Hints:
The structure holds 2 protein chains of 2 kinds.
Chain A: H1 8-17, E1 37-47, E2 54-60, E3 66-72, H2 76-81, E4 94-101, E5 108-115, E6 121-123
Parallel strand pairs in A: 3-5
Antiparallel strand pairs in A: 1-2, 1-4, 2-3, 4-5, 5-6
Chain B: H1 2-25, E1 40-44, H2 62-70, H3 73-76, E2 97-102, E3 105-110, E4 115-120, E5 136-142, E6 145-151, E7 171-180, E8 183-191, E9 200-208
Parallel strand pairs in B: 4-5
Antiparallel strand pairs in B: 1-2, 1-9, 2-3, 3-4, 5-6, 6-7, 7-8, 8-9
Amino acid sequence: MNAKPFHLVALLAALFLASSPLLAHHSTAEYEMGKTVSVIGTVTEFAWNNPHAYVYLEVKDDKGDIEKWSGELGTLGQLVRANWRRDTLKPGDHITMFGNPAKDGRLLMRLQKIILPNGQELAAQHVE
Amino acid sequence: MRNRLMVSILAATLATAFSAALFAQSPNPGQAGVSRDLAGVWQYDHFHPALFPKGTAPPFTPWGEARFKATDVMMNDPNLGCLPHGMPRMMLAPVPIEIFQIPGRILIEQEFMNEVRQIYLTRPHLKDPDPNFNGDSVGKWEGNTLVVDTIGLSHITMLDHVGLPHSDQLHLIERITRVDQDTLRDDFTIDDPKAYTKSWTTSQTYKLHPGWEIQEYACDRNQYVYHPLP
Lengths: 128, 230
């Protein structure tokens, strides 16, 4: 994994998001909720579907090989209230994903936020 | 001086008439809760995945404890099959609800699966209803608190998001009160002699979200597989 898991930005994001309400109605048991990882890569698909939307990302590891990451989001209703839209992401977009990593080592995270190509941050759910 | 006296008498008369009108519109003045108007989009203020946090033990019967131990929420949660939460979990989920008040009934729609429960205000319980997700709910007002009695709940649903079980003997009583303009509270009493040795009560408060609309929800790409428990 080239996830650069504990760099400063990720740590700050973890501290900020630790106070957010839980996202999923499905169990978060498959994720390490106390950890945050981040990856930078290129969007291959943005699946705008219920019960959970997904971002699929190709990430180059340290050797230049491609890793295929998935980022799980909440329901479309939760995303709409957090200012996401079906065209928020498109294939080819270069983004950063922050999230809780899967416990079993899969290249999967429960997304907390992304950084869009224009530098804007977008949280994975509505924040009061 | 005489004019001032007349003005005072007129003001006192108007004030008395106005307060009488207010009391006439408020059927139970002095009762807890600001009004019987529950309509609006609400969402929990704090999400509690577990009704009994770690370190506290539910008063399980042997059946209840065995059922809890047999449950793996990553396998047996009906949500994995995009089935409704059912009652009372639909009132405790991390998505908004909208309450509608129509003659004789109160309807509550929850965003997940756009699940709707109906609370009948003018009839008693059905006789021996088929157990289902939301059961048979009847309600009555006690002051400004809506007291809802629910039976007929299938045991395949869970009480909370960590797999707390119930049986089809669950008898649920809710006391729903709008405690102020922006806050709703629901006190749930769980009475289920097959799963618990005694009844117990838990509460959820909700905040009003005037700008929100319930979104359509259809499971059009479900990544999960549901393995129902018997």
